[in-house]
């Protein structure tokens, strides 16, 4: 599955330069791929984690998915304008 996501990411980069229509269509594919992975992730955590630590496992998973991703988005939105020469 990681290979599929990597392939989607590689194809997505040229779509950014083609125009808004292609970008919108190209955005649909990663969205479907990511939402299709979510039930697999849930089932894997539920199957392989201990019942007493299952909540902690889910918490770390969502921290990795949303917390670190949100932090990276904030950094990439802040750093380039601040790094431009004045």
How far apart the termini lie comes to 44 Å
What structural category arises from helix and sheet content? mainly alpha
Main beta-sheet annotation: none
Assess the beta-strand content as a share of residues: under 5%
What's the total count of β strands? 0
How helical, in percent, are the residues? over 70%
Number of helices: 3
The global form is flat
- Encode the helix/strand succession as letters: HHH
- Poorly predicted spans: none
Number of domains: 2
Mean pLDDT: 79
The rounded Rg comes to 17 Å
Features:
86 residues; mainly alpha; 3 helices
Summarize the entry for a quick read.
Helix content is 86%, strand content 0%.
Fold topology:
Blueprint: H1 2-16, H2 20-48, H3 54-83
Helix pairs in contact: 1-2
What would your notes on this structure say?
The chain is an all-alpha fold and 86 residues long. It folds into 2 domains: 1-48; 50-86. The chain is built from 3 helices and no strands. It has helices spanning 2-16, 20-48, 54-83. The protein is flat and about 55 Å long. The relative contact order is 0.07.
